Amino acid sequence: DAMVIQNPRYQVTQFGKPVTLSCSQTLNHNVMYWYQQKSSQAPKLLFHYYDKDFNNEADTPDNFQSRRPNTSFCFLDIRSPGLGDAAMYLCATSRGLAGGLNEQFFGPGTRLTVL
Amino acid sequence: GQQVMQIPQYQHVQEGEDFTTYCNSSTTLSNIQWYKQRPGGHPVFLIQLVKSGEVKKQKRLTFQFGEAKKNSSLHITATQTTDVGTYFCAGPGNYGQNFVFGPGTRLSVLP
User: Fold this and answer.
1) 3-state secondary structure of A108
2) Burial of B62 by CB count in 10 Å (0-12 exposed, 13-18 middle, 19+ buried)?
3) B93 and A50: CB-CB below 8 Å?
4) Do the beta carbons of residue A53 and residue B6 sit within 8 Å?
5) What is the pLDDT along chain A (115 residues), one digit of tens a residue?
6) Which residue among A90, A99, A106 sits closest to B92, beta carbon to beta carbon?
């Protein structure tokens, strides 16, 4: 029944040790988003894919990369996590882009802890 | 760049009282969306407004889109403890590709 699935739900990594978070969707949506959300803050968009087209936000650090091998899956790679990267990472999907009538469906998130 | 503001940042109400959160954009929006995030949860879509001056209702929730399409409000009548959470508005970014979220209004409801 789940539509946007994120794995793992909790991830603990060490400072500087690469980590990959995954997201899958059963909605067949064209757009997939990765957000970073820190405590008591709004979700902050890192990047999004429209189909295979990748769009990086201007202020997303180079430390963050993403892959979308097919429609259903999208990955967030953090190459060298720092303490400031500890956060909830939310994946979301939508049928189309923000300018249209397209709601976002969010996954449950992955909470990343950096030791 | 585009900015989306929300007030208040926090609101504490007694159960049964009404609640309103306001959203303001620095630019005209083609549409605006509202999301609710329960404590420990993820944002859940509530509604999308498109037309100037549009008003939509969902049970005790009333959503408005301003005439100039630069502001919006969410009003909850007779709050319940199940209304607890953070309410975010979100509008299309500068190029209409992504969503820009407001900082949110955190609602606490005292029983």
Assistant:
1) coil
2) middle
3) no
4) no
5) 669 999 999 999 999 999 999 999 999 999 999 999 999 999 999 999 999 999 998 899 999 999 999 999 999 999 999 999 999 999 999 998 877 778 999 999 999 999 9
6) A99
